[in-house]
Amino acid sequence: MTNNAQNAIRMTRQGAKKMESRELHLQHLNETVRQLRVVYQALPDPNALVYELWSAKDVLAHLTFWHESFAHNLNDLVKGRKPSPLKGRFIDLNQGGVDAMAHLNLAGVLERFEAAHTIIQANILNPALTLVPYKKGSRDYSPEEHLDIVDAHINEHLRDVRKALKR
Fold it and tell me: Does position 41 have pLDDT exceeding 90, yes or no?
C-alpha cells in the first residue's frame, strides 16, 4: 500500500472518529433540549421570576435568541454563504433578544426554539463544518466545542428555572 493510500485511510478514520464525537455531543444537546421541553411544557407560570429582571419565559427567549443565531450561522456555512455572527456586547445582545420576543407567548417562543434546534440537527453533522462563528470579536469554535457551549448554557439556565419553580 502506498503512503498516499495509508494517509487517506488514516484521514478517513480520523474523520469518522471526529464525526462519532460530534454525534455524541449532539446527543447530549438533544437530551438537554428534551429536558428543557419537559420543563417548559409543564411550566405553571411563564411569568415566574427566575432572575431579578427575567421571567421563565424571558429565559427561554434568551436561549432561543442564541439558538437561532447558532442555527443561522450553521445554515449559512452549509449552504456556502458567509455567516453573520451577532455583533455587540453580551448584555445588549441578551436583553435585545429577550425584548424582541416579548410579544410572543410561551408556546410561540418554544416553537421558535424548536425550529432553530431542527436546523442545528440538520446541519451540525455536515463533515464540511470545521469552525463555527459565535459572536463578532470572539474566536470561532469547532462544531464539537460549540455544541458543548450551547449544552452547558442551556443546562445552566435550566437549573435556575427549576430552582425558581421550587420557591
Answer: yes
Q: Using only C-alpha atoms, what is the Rg of the chain?
A: 18
Q: Are 73 and 85 in contact (CB under 8 A)?
A: yes
Whether 88 and 43 have beta carbons less than 8 Å apart is answered as no
Per the CB < 8 A criterion, the answer to whether 140 and 134 are in contact is yes
**Is pLDDT at 13 greater than 80 in this prediction?**
no
Q: Which CATH number fits domain 22-166: 3.20.20.70, 1.20.120.450, 1.20.1250.20, 1.20.140.10?
A: 1.20.120.450
- At 17 the pLDDT is 57
Residue ranges of alpha helices (H) inside the chain are: 3-41, 56-78, 90-100, 106-123, 143-166
pTM score above 0.90: no
Q: Who's near 123: CB < 8 A, 6+ residues apart?
A: 71, 74, 75, 77, 78, 129
